[in-house]
């Protein structure tokens, strides 16, 4: 009797289990269908993941929201590190995400990403990264000035340093290794530059991975030339103000003509623009390639 009771009991239990599984699968399919029917905005809660408030790319993104009439959208302030952490989490799950992006940046070598087309040209075309110096640097430190004026490299060269730093290597060590491995390139930068004798140089940079890489490389070469170098990581506004008031000697992190346009105009005449140290950079809205959108216009759908 006991065995018969057990078998009789198992039939409805099994039936309930199968029904539950069937219900779960149906729910899962319904969830997928619901997600598939979502607009781009709904899929990301109408949020664009940004970086530091006041950064040029954030101002450009706010302008893009207005220009493209993305009235329901918010630009989330944070930091470069927070933005890439959010991207990494979403990418691992193949979830939709929209971020403020720029190149050169290591995220493009780690993830398959694409820029959204900008038919209204809010973000401008290609940008350059310029070197700016305080007035009087050429007279006070001619060797440092000459070297900074001759400094020029490519996005691929920067990426060699940037990726190592992102992977956990100390920025100073990564920069020194790159300088040692690229002696011919460094020789062009320092051609005709005389050695210093312990003079102090202070460089400013923003906390972007690209600028951490470039500034540490510059600091390494200046140290090898005999300078005592101090690095100051600050936001873009204080950086430009520092070069303008002379508390910073120089920076190789001026993104122009769009990203830092406001600062260039504000402090025009109070600094010296040494021109591009890298051409062909870019800013805009970036998404994973698995997202089926191609233009900022698509965000209105």
Automatic annotation (TrEMBL):
<dbReference type="InterPro" id="IPR007210">
    <property type="entry name" value="ABC_Gly_betaine_transp_sub-bd"/>
</dbReference>
<keyword id="KW-1003">Cell membrane</keyword>
<dbReference type="GO" id="GO:0031460">
    <property type="term" value="P:glycine betaine transport"/>
</dbReference>
<dbReference type="GO" id="GO:0043190">
    <property type="term" value="C:ATP-binding cassette (ABC) transporter complex"/>
</dbReference>
<keyword id="KW-0472">Membrane</keyword>
<dbReference type="GO" id="GO:0015226">
    <property type="term" value="F:carnitine transmembrane transporter activity"/>
</dbReference>
<feature type="signal peptide">
    <location>
        <begin position="1"/>
        <end position="26"/>
    </location>
</feature>
<dbReference type="Pfam" id="PF04069">
    <property type="entry name" value="OpuAC"/>
</dbReference>
<dbReference type="GO" id="GO:0005275">
    <property type="term" value="F:amine transmembrane transporter activity"/>
</dbReference>
<protein>
    <submittedName>
        <fullName>Glycine/betaine ABC transporter</fullName>
    </submittedName>
</protein>
<dbReference type="GO" id="GO:0015871">
    <property type="term" value="P:choline transport"/>
</dbReference>
<feature type="domain" description="ABC-type glycine betaine transport system substrate-binding">
    <location>
        <begin position="39"/>
        <end position="180"/>
    </location>
</feature>
<keyword id="KW-0813">Transport</keyword>
<keyword id="KW-0732">Signal</keyword>
<feature type="domain" description="ABC-type glycine betaine transport system substrate-binding">
    <location>
        <begin position="200"/>
        <end position="301"/>
    </location>
</feature>
């Amino acid at each position: 009797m006991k065995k018969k009771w057990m078998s009789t009991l198992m039939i409805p239990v099994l039936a309930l289990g199968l029904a539950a599984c069937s219900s779960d699968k149906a729910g899962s399919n319904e969830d997928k269908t619901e997600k598939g029917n979502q607009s781009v905005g709904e899929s990301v809660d109408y949020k664009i993941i940004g970086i530091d408030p006041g950064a040029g790319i954030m101002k450009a993104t706010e302008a893009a929201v207005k220009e493209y009439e993305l009235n329901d959208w918010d630009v989330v302030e944070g930091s470069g590190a927070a933005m890439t952490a959010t991207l990494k989490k979403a990418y691992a799950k193949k979830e939709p995400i929209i971020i403020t992006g720029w190149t050169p940046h290591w995220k493009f070598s780690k993830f398959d990403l694409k820029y959204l087309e900008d038919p209204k040209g809010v973000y401008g075309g290609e940008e350059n990264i310029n070197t700016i110096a305080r007035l009087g640097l050429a007279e006070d430190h001619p060797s440092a000035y000459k070297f900074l004026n001759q400094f020029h490299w490519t996005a691929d060269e920067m990426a060699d340093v940037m990726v190592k730093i992102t992977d956990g290597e100390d920025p100073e060590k990564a920069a020194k290794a790159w300088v040692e491995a690229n002696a011919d390139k460094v020789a062009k930068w320092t051609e005709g530059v005389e050695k210093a004798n312990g003079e102090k140089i202070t460089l400013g940079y923003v906390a972007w991975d690209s600028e951490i890489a470039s500034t540490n490389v510059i600091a390494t070469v200046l140290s090898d030339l005999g300078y005592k170098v101090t690095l100051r990581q600050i936001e873009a506004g204080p950086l430009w103000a520092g070069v303008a008031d002379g508390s910073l000697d120089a920076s190789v992190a001026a993104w122009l003509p769009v990203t830092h346009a406001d600062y260039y105009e504000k402090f025009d005449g109070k600094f010296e623009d040494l021109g591009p140290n890298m051409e062909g950079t870019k800013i805009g809205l970036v998404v994973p390639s698995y997202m089926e959108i191609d233009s900022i216009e698509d965000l209105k759908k």
